[in-house]
Amino acid sequence: MTSVELDPEDAKLVTLARSARARNGAAEGAAVRDDIGRTYAATTVALPSLSLTALQAAVAAAVSSGAQRLEAAAVVSDATEVDADSAAALADLGVKAAISADSSGAVRS
Predict the structure, then answer these.
(1) What three-state secondary structure class fits 63?
(2) How many CA atoms lie within 13 A of 56 on its CB side?
(3) Which of 46, 68, 96, 98 is the most exposed, having the fewest neighbouring CB atoms within 10 Å of its CB?
(4) HSE (CB half, 13 Å, CA atoms) of 34?
(5) Average pLDDT of each block of 10 consecutive residues along the chain (109 residues)?
């Protein structure tokens, strides 16, 4: 794995995603930034009646707060790829791909 240098605003997303994941002991943490700079962090939701990936939950938090476009997204997970449903939620708001990092915050290239 190569070291990837992020701009400070994108590095902040990774930090927020890591913090959310650690705080909840969740499988995934995610953070998104909208087009005016507001950030939203979330973790995996696993209830009997509702299941969301961390990215889906972060997108939902952004949308429910009035965001109509996103600039960037990050996910911290042991998984090496973003699932199709999460990618689709990001694409709905204009993000082509999420920054992916492992639990230490190391960004995957």
Answers:
(1) helix
(2) 13
(3) 96
(4) 17
(5) 78 97 95 97 97 98 98 95 95 96 90
Mention every residue, 6+ apart, whose C-beta is less than 8 A from residue 13: 31, 32, 33, 39, 72, 73, 74, 99
Helix (H) / strand (E) element for 90: namely: helix 84-92
Q: What pLDDT does residue 5 have?
A: 83
Q: By three-state DSSP, how is residue 38 classified? A: coil
Alpha carbon distance 31, 73 (integer Å): 6
Token pair of 82, please?
A: 């973003």
Q: What CATH class does 8-101 carry?
A: alpha beta
pTM for this one? 0.93
Residue written as token pair 């600039």: 71
Q: Beta-strand (E) ranges in the chain?
A: 28-34, 39-43, 45-46, 51-52, 70-77, 99-101
